[in-house]
């Protein structure tokens, strides 16, 4: 049933249900500590899950690892980050739109790998999953907060330009239903026995997390428990095809240095913005940082998926 570790899905679903319960029972506590939770997720799994690219790339692109190719990789990787960062400075709204498209594809791709489908069926699952996650990040439990973040960095107001024509409640409902309905339609045709499975509960619970929980907390739960964890397992499985024994101890050992560099950047950003006391700007710049780090990561990951199991 796909390349990721589907047997772990039930634990993700249970973790999601627990997160919803905790948020409903202790909403004030979650709100108070939401940024600490996000920071912890980024620290533990968020940054490390993207720090395997220096190993994945050489295997995915099938090039020997030597001094020359390493220099090419690092300069290319940093070049993409710098160019996208510059693009953010001059074209923030276009950069944000590109980030949304990139994110929905990346999240949907990682989640759709659990299924053995191909062609149009897999594309529907990939894009509907990605659209649901990204749509609910924007229009989930607190769309006005999301609008303030977007306006802070792009100057574009969802309140004035979108909510004036269609109420955020309708947008929330659309994205809540999008993936579950697409999933059920595909499953009913392809593998009807999965209608009563953890995959169905997963389709529902992710939508509920974003629509019922505080938005920063909701993103933290999904990003840590689903995306980053699944993605890390997939990358380690890919590497193991080449004779390398992998584990999470191996994972953290090989991502430590690159994660530390990212943590340092985050720390500097946090203390600078904390001095100005602008919370919306802090969140906005955090997501910009995530976006510029994600773009080169996506190039590596795309090639990895293309070559997955090619050694068998």
Your description of this structure?
This protein is an all-alpha fold. The protein is built from 13 helices and no strands. Helix 5 crosses helix 6. The longest helix has 29 residues. The chain is globular, with a radius of gyration of 19 Å. The protein starts with 8 loop residues before the first helix and ends in a 6-residue tail after the last helix. The N terminus is likely disordered.
Describe the structure in brief:
Helix 1 (9-25) runs antiparallel to helix 2 and helix 5 (92-112) crosses helix 6 (119-139). Helix content is 80%, strand content 0%. The two termini are 17 Å apart.
Number of strands: 0
Structural class: mainly alpha
- Unreliable residue runs: 1-5
Figure out the total of helices.
Answer: 13
Mean pLDDT: 86
Tell me the major beta sheet: none
User: What is the percentage of strand-forming residues?
Assistant: under 5%
What percent of residues adopt helix (DSSP H or I)?
over 70%
Question: What is the approximate shape?
Answer: globular
Radius of gyration over C-alpha positions, nearest whole angstrom: 19 Å
From the N-terminal CA to the C-terminal CA, the straight-line distance is 17 Å
SSE inventory with pairings:
Elements: H1 9-25, H2 27-49, H3 53-60, H4 67-90, H5 92-112, H6 119-139, H7 143-154, H8 158-161, H9 168-190, H10 198-212, H11 215-240, H12 248-276, H13 279-306
Which tags fit this structure?
312 residues; mainly alpha; 13 helices
